[in-house]
């Protein structure tokens, strides 16, 4: 683990390669799993505010879930997560004609309809951030559905932290990210020279 400010960063974030390969996975991270995407309370409130703007992009089943239980719920670990359909699909997933899963927030954002890109946990994936009393843990979450992303990352030589530059800056700020790059450069050079 490496430390920057109040964050502890897993070495996998620096060492492993990753580039999302949507052509291969079709957005499976939006529809697989046993809970919704983690949300910050401010995001939950923002989602409630912008819900009318994305409502027509959601499936009838998703709308029904949202009407019954809301945009989020508390999971088994006590975290706020997006509501899900069929025990796994995020309610904010919309499907393209080719079967590709897309985020309704991201779609609306790119169309200029809303000013919210997507929940930070989704933007940061495959990195997960866990808040503890005195620090935040920044970990790379390996999942079999992202195997094609690991292969593409290795082919292109792009590390997890490089692929996630924009969301890491969104979460932690540009100074933090610049420090991460410096630390990564030194660490990876030293590792190579061993």
Automatic annotation (TrEMBL):
This is DUF3109 family protein. Belongs to the Rv0495c family. Pfam families: DUF3109 (PF11307).
């Amino acid at each position: 683990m490496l430390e920057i400010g109040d964050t502890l960063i897993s070495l996998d974030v620096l060492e492993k390669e990753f580039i999302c390969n949507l052509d291969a996975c079709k957005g499976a991270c939006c529809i697989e799993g046993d809970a919704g995407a983690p949300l910050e309370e401010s995001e939950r409130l923002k989602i409630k505010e912008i819900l009318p703007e994305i409502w027509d992009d959601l499936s009838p089943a998703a709308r029904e879930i949202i009407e019954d239980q809301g945009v989020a719920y508390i999971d088994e670990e006590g975290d706020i997560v997006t509501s899900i359909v069929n025990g796994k699909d995020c309610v904010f997933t919309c499907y393209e004609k080719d079967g590709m899963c897309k985020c309704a927030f991201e779609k609306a954002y790119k169309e200029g309809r809303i000013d919210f890109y997507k929940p930070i946990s989704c933007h940061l994936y495959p990195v997960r951030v866990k808040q503890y009393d005195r620090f935040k843990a920044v970990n790379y979450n390996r999942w079999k559905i992202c195997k094609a992303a690991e292969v593409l990352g290795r082919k292109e030589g792009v590390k997890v932290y490089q692929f996630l530059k924009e969301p890491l800056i969104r979460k932690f700020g540009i100074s933090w990210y610049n420090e991460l790059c410096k630390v990564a450069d030194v660490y990876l050079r030293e590792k190579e020279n061993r």
